[in-house]
Amino acid sequence: MHYPKTLFARTGLTIAIAMLIFLLFSGSVIFYYILQPVARQASEDLAALIMLSTQTWVELPPETRSDFEDELHSQHGLTLSHTNTPLTTPTIKSPFLHFLENALSLRQGADVFILHDPADSNWLWVDIPIADQSLRIGFTHSRIKARPPAAILALILGASIITLLTSLLLVRRLTHPLARLAKETSRFGRGERPDPLPEEGPEELALLARNFNHMTGQVQQLLSNRTTLLGGISHDLRTPIARLQLAMEFLNHEQDPKLLEGMQHDLAEMNHLITRTLELAKGMEDASQDIKEVDLVTLISDLIEAHKHQGGIVEWEKPPPCMLQTNPTALNRVLANLLENAKHYGEDKPIRIELDCGIDSITISLLDHGPGIPDDQFESVFQPFYRLESSRSQTTGGSGLGLAIVKQLCDIYGWKVQLQPRSGGGLIARLIIPQDRYSTIKD
User: Quick count: other Cβ atoms within 10 Å of Cβ 181?
Assistant: First the structure.
């Protein structure tokens, strides 16, 4: 059995079941202590009227009996019949008819049964032996106005509908703030700036919303301060780096060329590290801006051309256009980092790129021929500054921030990035864009 997963559905279902049990219990109490005694009393009255009518008819002179029968029919809804047509016992009897049979049997001193004519089931008949003859007296179903089963059913259904609607409104009022909190926490977890929650409702929910608003404000302030701090540090570092690079240009090139080359390489690495650190620190700033419709095939083709100019080799079978609305800068950065990562660790072998523009998702796969990644480190490589020491080439290692930036951008935009071993050696990096992320970031 599958149970609802949302708090609203589970709470509503619990209340509905509890109220159904309560209504069944209350309906049983009403039946046994109210409806059943009323039905018994009504059956006693009708049984007394039937017995009195038969005795009166027998004692009346024959010439006045027809007038009595007319009055009995018009005033009390009872009909005296002199036919001897065979009758049958009804298959299903209401509790009232059982009570009526018992009341008639007690007054008659013998078993009396309620009968009906199969040809006209609307009438019910009773054969009363009296004065050496048998009188048949009948009444219609409409004569019996009290219907306990229908009353109980109507009571249960009406009360159930009212209770269910009231419970759903109450549960929705209680769970709506929690649903909104869950939505905003999901946005916050993706790195987006959540909207402030209304600090209203029950005391506990208002306090929860107030603490959430305070926490998100503090985190946003912390992120802003971090970006400002790193921006200032990068500016202060880049200035002396630029001076060092300029001074090296004026050095006598007759000096040790390997030493100068090594110094230039170190300065370039420092500048590259500062740039990547800033990219990671800026995170989701303006993440929802610059949303455009792009052709993914064109974007990948331009990226491949730029990669080829840097000496890389890419195998790419250009598919039909694949359109989507997204931030092209963020998507280009993700693909560029994955391609750079494949180039660094692919041992200068061709990199293959595959694009699957499906109905449910778009999948971009980059396949290299490098040494791969151990299974227990597939998640660790997405951590900032994490670098493999033995499973990847140490001479071509990067800053340890490329995949961290990829993971952060994927979390922001709701994309998925997966790494898995490639058959025959190497690594497969997949970027998956689900269908609900084709257009833009969710609100």
Answer: 16
Phi–psi pair at 352, nearest 5 degrees: -105, 135
Q: Is residue 168 part of a domain?
A: no
CA distances for 324 relative to 290, 299, 354, 411, 439, angstroms: 13, 11, 17, 18, 6
Distance from C-alpha of 260 to C-alpha of 443, rounded to nearest angstrom: 52
161 falls within a domain = no
Q: Which residues of the chain have pLDDT under 70?
A: 1-13, 15-16, 83, 144-152, 189-192, 223, 226-227, 230-232, 234-235, 250-256, 272-273, 276-290, 385, 388-400, 436-443
Angle CA(403)–CA(405)–CA(410) in degrees, nearest 5? 95
Same domain, 141 and 73: yes
Tell me the DSSP string of 185-217: HHHHHTT--PPPPP--SSHHHHHHHHHHHHHHH
- Tell me which residue range forms the domain holding 236: 221-282
CA distance to 89, 90, 111, 135, per residue, from 98 (Å): 12, 11, 12, 20
Domain count, the chain: 3
Q: What CATH number is associated with residue 348? A: 3.30.565.10
Geometric angle at alpha carbon 90, from 85 and 95, rounded to 5°: 135
What are the φ/ψ torsions at residue 202 (nearest 5 degrees)?
-55, 155
pLDDT score recorded for residue 390 = 45
- Residues 44, 144: one domain? yes
**313 and 379 assigned to the same domain:** yes
Q: Which residue has the tokens 């997966």?
A: 418
- pTM: predicted TM-score of the whole model, two decimal places: 0.47
Determine the Cα–Cα distance for residues 308 and 301; give it in Å rounded to an integer: 11
Domain final residue, candidates 102, 122, 151: 151
Are residues 145 and 30 both part of a single domain? yes
